[in-house]
Design goal:
Among the domains are: about 10-160, Immunoglobulin-like; about 475-569. It is built from 11 helices and 33 strands. Helix 6 (about 290-305) packs parallel to helix 7. The mean pLDDT is about 95. InterPro entries: Aldolase_TIM, Alpha-glycosidase_related, GH, Glyco_hydro_36.
Length: about 575
Amino acid sequence: MQVWEPYALGETTRVRAGALELALAGAADATVTQVSDGVWLIDAPGATAAQWRVPCVSVSAFWTPVGGTHWVPPIWSAPLVSRLTAGSPVVSLVGTAGANVCTVGLAEPLAQVSFTGGVMEETGEFVFTLHGEGLRIRLDLSDRPFSAAVAGVAAWWQEEAGDLPPTPDRARLPVYSTWYSMHQDVSAESVETQARLARELGCETIIVDDGWQTADRARGYAFCGDWEPSLATFPDISGHVARVRELGMAYLLWYALPFVGKHNAAFERFEGRFLRYLDHMDAAVLDPRYPEVRNFLIDRLAQAVETWGMDGLKIDFVDRFATPGGDPAPGAGTDCADVDEGVRRLLHDLDARLRRTRPQVLIEHRQPYTSPGLWPYANMIRAVDCPLSSQENRQRTIDLRLTAGPVAVHSDMILWHPDEPAEQVAVHLINALFSVPQISVDLTAQRPDQLAAIRFWLGIFRRHLSTLQRGTLEPEQPEHGYPLVRARDERTTIVARYAPLPVEVPDSGELIVANAAPDRRVVLYGTGSAHAEVHDCGGAVVRTSTLVLEPGACVVEVPMGGLLTLRRD
């Protein structure tokens, strides 16, 4: 039978990593080093492409950092692209029960890399193809959990990066955001009201989103660019910020970094130094390869911290610097050829300036600009917008956690309908349990039972922060969107149950089970005895008992949105 050969590389060099053979195009020589059991580094500075095949035996999922259903794609699927302003260079072929089959990561590239992978129908193999300049590949063929293999790539990136600014503790504490609750209809008075209520519920930071810079309420970005507060709604922004900070809240301000709107004075000033114009946004994308563009943006953003007293910035739309189809040629007056290099210089110089005023400055980025090359310039990374989709929020935050390295992972802003039952409010929060929750509802309109659910679950986030955010993360069944997720450290195991799946009880320490499934029957497997305490979605104690675990299944009823705690005698 004639077999189709995908993505022919031409003349290649063949190297081996264990039982796997890789074809490297353009590589005069390559070095293969085994760094641990089942893990190899392939250094091929002259390579422009790499390709290898893995038999699809007991394969169940294909994990990528861009989210989605994690299905196993056919070979003719579109390539994944990673660059400084979009994506992360790592993928994983996942086997039965979440075991790693083949996880591949690339050292943070200076230029764009692309990955094409999929099932070759004629042979039942999964074909991996990488394209880039000077490939440095980390290949994990061990049979440990895929989540550990992906996290191993992130740890490698961190080693390669060297010293990074420490992530402030505050970056890991609950946040209130104005976007879904107010959209552009923000004012000093309304922000201060929400900040006070959010602080009482357990939030430590408020992020004021779009609308502070304009009195226009038609959405769009036509009035972005000068980044001065609207005097109609923020007549004394420094005094306003001081009042919010007196509540004990940190204050971050939103900036759509690349955009300059058509109704803004900066639009005429920088005409001719745009990457492109976006009709649907009524704004142009500035070209960061021009030093005067970078200096202007740095001055505009820095005043929020230096002059108005902010604690940090929410930097939005960094991915929009990347031009579909390729970056335009640099114009006269640019000082670098690549847009990504211009972005890197912009963020580096902005970070250096902000830290002169606030060494613990808080900076939020967002999917899809999740590259490890941006770690020096952000300490918070948020899941992309998925309003009212708790499952998507769960999947995206878990995906981010596996690759975020030292950066605190935040949920997308959590939103619910005013008539939402308190149990469902708790379910929204449990779906973000392994990230930093961002709340975005009108707190003045919440019923007492809804407020009780917020207060209780934000208390759980805070009380168990170390286990939830710094413990070992063990998500199960990526092909099903992680219906059960576990985090553990030496003393505590925390399990979030999103479907009626059984829970293993550890032999020692404390077990906490958050039940986001409608099925109240939590099935436990373990032995021995433990003190059991069940709380409802608002934190009220439903029952306490001594639970005797015998071989086989034990069932404990936990309300939807509720919590089970087991402490060994």
